[in-house]
Amino acid sequence: MYGSISKVIRLGKQTKVKKSWVERFMSIFILIIIMLAVYGVVYWNETSRFPVLGEEDTKVFYVTALMWEYYPTEIRVLEGDNVIIHLTSIDVPHGFYLEAWNITSNVSPNQTETIEFTADKVGKFEFYCIFYCGIGHEDMRAYVVVEEKG
Ligand code: CUA
Predict the structure, then answer these.
(1) What does the pLDDT look like over 80-128, one tens digit per residue?
(2) Of the candidates 124, 30, 28, 120, which has an alpha carbon nearest to the alpha carbon of residue 75?
(3) Which atom of ligand 1 is closest in space to residue 133's alpha carbon?
(4) Is residue 62 a part of any domain in this protein?
(5) 2 in a domain, yes or no?
(6) Structural domain boundaries, residue 16
(7) CATH of the domain at 114
(8) Ligand 1 pocket by C-beta < 6 Å: which residues?
(9) For the whole model, what pTM was predicted?
């Protein structure tokens, strides 16, 4: 029994390929790049859910439309806030329909449309794309979350 185990260990040692320092360096480097990319996406998405500037009761957001998502996927405001959304497309024309406030818009690539409304309802409200933009068009949606003030 012990004999077969040591054989396996020996086989394992034989098949182990010795990596040069360049390979080691490259694999660590690539790993760091991947970690930074993942962190960047998560961090960006997390921070941009919340307003980037504005007065106490005016909340300003920058929303990016792309096939087939909006980023951030959710924006958060307080009841009564005046909400300003600067909507940009980075690929093809996209639409925007926020049913709760009956607001429609269309945005062309590399242009910005400004959407403004008062968040006078509490809840989670969907907005979605109303301009056909490809195979994922039907699933292109995001949310405005209005929290009760207090
Ligand atoms: Cu974006 Cu349809």
Answers:
(1) 999 999 999 999 999 999 999 999 999 999 899 999 999 999 999 999 9
(2) 124
(3) 2
(4) yes
(5) no
(6) 7-47
(7) 2.60.40.420
(8) 68, 94-95, 129, 131-133, 137, 140
(9) 0.69
